[in-house]
Write a structure and sequence with these properties.
Blueprint lengths: L1 H16 L24 E5 L4 H6 L6 H12 L8 E4 L13 H18 L3 E5 L1 H4 L8 H4 L4 E3 L2 E6 L2 H6 L4 H16 L5 E3 L12
Parallel strand pairs: 1-2, 1-3, 3-5, 4-6
Antiparallel strand pairs: 4-5
Helix pairs in contact: 1-4
């Protein structure tokens, strides 16, 4: 079963690397499909690749990635046990925020990654990632509060890059990772949401 999952993810990676669904493909060095084990119980979803990610084709390998590694270590989570992806798979020029049409173009890839991996917990990093599950919420209000939506537990957090740009957020992010550890240990119970979010499913073909 796990081999089938890995094959399915590799097929998505191949499509992402050849993707031209939006204009971002023109300026990319490498697309950044995602990385991690196909049977991961935790999935982190960031916003978009940055310079270092674009150069290496891997998610969270720059400064935000180093901070993520530190936070994972403090929470007692090994990075090689989690799956990491982004809302969009190619770097926006100048690291600008993703445009709506870019998010829409990449949505099917991320939807399929979630369907294949079926993580127990989906950690959203930043408001673009959070908006997939909670489009009408403010990250300043819902961060660190796990919610069970359908078959998944969503755990919204600030993006690690936000903690780098705003040092006042660092302690908040660190606390949220402690709460993530509590969630995994069963001492933090997620809130139940009655119905899953309406995420539009788009065809890759």
């Amino acid at each position: 079963m796990n081999g089938n999952r890995e094959q399915a993810l590799e097929a998505i990676y191949a499509r992402v690397r050849a993707c031209s669904r939006c204009s971002l493909h023109v300026g990319r060095t490498h697309a950044v499909p995602g990385a991690g084990p196909a049977n991961a119980t935790i999935m982190f979803i960031g916003e978009a690749p940055g310079f270092h990610e674009d150069q290496q084709g891997l998610p969270f390998v720059g400064a935000a990635g180093k901070l993520l590694n530190e936070l994972l270590e403090k929470a007692g989570i090994e990075r090689n046990t989690v799956y990491i992806s982004n809302v969009i798979k190619c770097r926006p020029p100048g690291n600008r925020e993703p445009a709506p049409e870019e998010v829409e173009a990449c949505a099917p890839y991320l939807d399929q990654q979630i369907d294949i991996i079926k993580p127990k917990v989906i950690v959203t990093l930043g408001r673009y990632s959070m908006a997939r599950a909670f489009p009408d919420e403010k990250i300043s209000v819902v961060h660190g509060k796990p919610r069970k939506v359908g078959e998944y537990i969503y755990f919204p957090m600030y993006h690690p890059a936000a903690a780098l740009h705003q040092p006042s957020l660092r302690s908040i992010v660190e606390t949220d990772f402690i709460r993530l550890r509590e969630l995994l240990d069963g001492t933090l119970v997620p809130e139940e949401i009655a119905s899953p979010p309406a995420i539009e499913q788009l065809s890759l073909f």
